[in-house]
Amino acid sequence: MTKTTKAAIEAITEANVDANAGSLTTLAERHRPAARKASIAVLAAVMTFGMAGGAFAQTTGGGTSDTSSAGNTNGGGLPQIETQGDVSFTSGGVGLDESHALIREQAHWPLSLRFTGPTSDYLSDVHVRIADAKNAEVLKTDAMGPYMLVKLPPGHYTVYARYKDSEKKQGVTVAGNGKAKADFHWAMQ
């Protein structure tokens, strides 16, 4: 028996009469819907694992929707809150999520500072020192971006801001949340 004859006999043997349509149906044709369902299931699984992998990457800090802003735990884009003595502060605003969060939070902090350069370019690495009315230093730190929010008790303070070799100072009166603001502008970059 030749291979062709053997294949023909096997095909006829495997053929069944489709009771609904009255036509000959091979085994492969009867199993086509199952193969199609299996293909769809495999595709769905691949897509699900692909999305889950992306979600995993984002929860481990690898995605652009990470709202922890440089690894802080505040969420919502607000940079890490730090403390020196009785004074709490946060600074940043280099990224869009941080700048929006800091602007939004200004109303909840007694003092907000902003640092800009020529043509209103935002500056970072500004050395900040705040002294109370008796000239006692209450805060000394470096701003990590153009915005800094500071929680101070009510009173009169002098804010010293040094960028490169140029220092500026401004007096501020802190009376309540979101009331005191100071902008520092340098003409050099």
CATH domain fold name of the largest domain = Immunoglobulin-like
CATH architecture of the largest domain: Sandwich
Structural class: alpha+beta
Q: SSE order in H/E notation?
A: HEEHHEEHEEEEEEE
Give unreliable regions as ranges.
Answer: 11-25, 46-72
* Biggest pleated sheet: 5 strands, mixed
Rounded Rg: 34 Å
The rough form would be described as elongated
CATH superfamily of the largest domain: Immunoglobulins
Strand content: 25-35%
- If you average the pLDDT, what whole number results? 74
Any idea how many domains? 2
Helix content, binned percent: 25-40%
Terminal CA distance: 91 Å
Placed side by side, the strands forming the largest sheet appear as 3-4-8-5-11
In DSSP terms (H or I, runs of 4 or more residues), the helix count works out at 4
| Strand elements, count | 11
- CATH class category name of the largest domain: Mainly Beta
Give the helices and strands, then pairings.
Blueprint lengths: L2 H12 L1 E2 L6 E2 L1 H4 L1 H28 L22 E3 L2 E6 L3 H10 L5 E6 L9 E7 L4 E7 L3 E5 L3 E9 L2 E9 L5 E6 L4
Parallel strand pairs: 5-11
Antiparallel strand pairs: 1-2, 3-4, 4-8, 5-8, 6-7, 6-9, 9-10
What's a concise summary of this model?
The protein folds into 2 domains: 3-59, no CATH class; 82-185, Immunoglobulins (Immunoglobulin-like), CATH 2.60.40.10. Helix content is 29%, strand content 33%. It has helices at 3-14, 27-30, 32-59, 96-105, and strands at residues 16-17, 24-25, 82-84, 87-92, 111-116, 126-132, 137-143, 147-151, 155-163, 166-174, 180-185.
